[in-house]
């Protein structure tokens, strides 16, 4: 089982990264930090006669990485009740990947297992983060991916996620689940 972790946070070693690292602790996985890549915002050309034009950025390489893995963990802080800007740009560009003749994106992502880790400030994040979870659910359903589980943790200031005992327990449970799946 090949695991890819896509980090959407713009902060190094923030709460999202800390919680997600608990989820994938001890697993051999590939980590992508969108803050260290260049993914241009989409120029929607779905309905133009010539279609999308090539973009000189990292999205093609990121798509190749996505297609090469069986399990994907998407990790993002809760920014204004949604995913981070880098994560949103990454997903928006899936529209272009769906029409890219260099790979069969639709069939390539179908059946992949998806997990989501979200952190937001305050205990209310478990409630205010639910619309974002629904957005991920809809994205995965459209893509034909299996949405296995999600985790929402409470933490605003750096390191605060470590005080969220519930999130830490859920992260440990997800970690055990992934390890069992890896050993199956």
List the helices and strands and how they pair.
Elements: E1 3-7, H1 15-24, E2 29-33, H2 59-67, E3 71-77, H3 85-92, H4 94-97, H5 105-109, E4 113-120, H6 125-128, H7 130-143, E5 146-154, H8 165-183
Parallel strand pairs: 1-2, 1-3, 3-4, 4-5
Description:
- This protein is an alpha/beta fold and 184 residues long.
- The chain has a single domain, classed as Rossmann fold (3-Layer(aba) Sandwich), CATH 3.40.50.360.
- The protein has eight helices and five strands.
- It has helices at 15-24, 59-67, 85-92, 94-97, 105-109, 125-128, 130-143, 165-183, and strands spanning 3-7, 29-33, 71-77, 113-120, 146-154.
- It has a five-stranded parallel beta sheet with strand order 2-1-3-4-5, with helices on both faces.
- Helix 1 (15-24) links the parallel strand 1 (3-7) and strand 2 (29-33).
- The longest helix is centred in the C-terminal third of the chain and has 19 residues, at 165-183.
- It is globular, with a radius of gyration of 16 Å.
- The model has no long low-confidence stretch (mean pLDDT 92).
């Amino acid at each position: 089982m090949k695991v890819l972790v896509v980090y959407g946070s713009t902060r190094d070693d923030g709460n999202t990264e800390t919680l997600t690292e608990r989820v994938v602790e001890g697993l051999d996985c590939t980590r992508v930090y969108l803050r260290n890549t260049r993914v241009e915002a989409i120029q929607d050309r779905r309905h133009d006669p010539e279609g999308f034009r090539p973009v000189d950025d990292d999205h093609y390489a990121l798509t190749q990485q996505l297609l090469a893995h069986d399990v994907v963990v998407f990790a993002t802080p809760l920014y204004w009740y949604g995913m981070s800007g880098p994560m949103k740009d990454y997903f928006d560009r899936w529209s272009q990947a769906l029409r890219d003749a260099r790979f069969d994106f639709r069939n390539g992502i179908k059946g992949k297992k998806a997990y989501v880790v979200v952190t937001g400030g305050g205990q209310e994040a478990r409630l205010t983060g639910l619309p974002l979870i629904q957005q991920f659910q809809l994205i995965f359903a459209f893509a034909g991916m299996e949405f296995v589980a999600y985790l929402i943790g409470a933490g605003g200031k750096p390191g605060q996620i470590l005080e969220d005992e519930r999130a830490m327990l859920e992260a440990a449970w997800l970690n055990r689940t992934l390890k069992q799946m890896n050993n199956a």
